[in-house]
Amino acid sequence: MLEFNALTLALEDYPHQRPLSLLLRKGQGVMVVGSNKRALHVLVSTLLGRRPMAQGKVLWRGEEFTGKAAAFFRCMVAYIPPVMAEKDTTVESVLDGLNRLHHHKGVATSQQERMQEWARIGLSPAIASQSVASLSLECWQLLLVAEARLKHKKIVVIEEVVSPRVTEQLQQLMKEEGCVVVATTMDEAMASVFDKYIMLDECLNN
Question: What is the Cα–Cα distance from 97 to 119, expressed in whole angstroms?
């Protein structure tokens, strides 16, 4: 259970925000819609514990994300950024790098498992040897959603969702794995994709 409790963001340009409160239970998701890309990123960074919040709390199963609890929380999270990292290297190298992270010990993904998951979502095995720079952003997001499933992440945080194909895979992850999803977009048409949505502009311009 993920909870935003009277949360306001550390944004100097928006001193009079409406506090944001939200409760996401197992298998639920929220789409955060806004016209300000920086504000959307600050929300995500605050959720991940990388930025301080102005006021309020973020809680997982009733426990606040501070100190050791924040480090433990981040181990449960799959973060999918809005840009592709390490564009001059291959997809396989990047994903193998994820396997080597200390909090993925015991849940490292085998090549066979990865190929089976890619086949399930319609991705070619040939992608593994391609450079990250050659991929579309949709393909990159699909790859990382697949990794989140294979590593049994409890929470997926994804910035700037690019397509219905990606949201479809996120919906499956919520339904089949009980994952909690927090996604952002600047496209209002995506607002109703998940169980809940937040119109961030309304909170900022209170």
Answer: 21
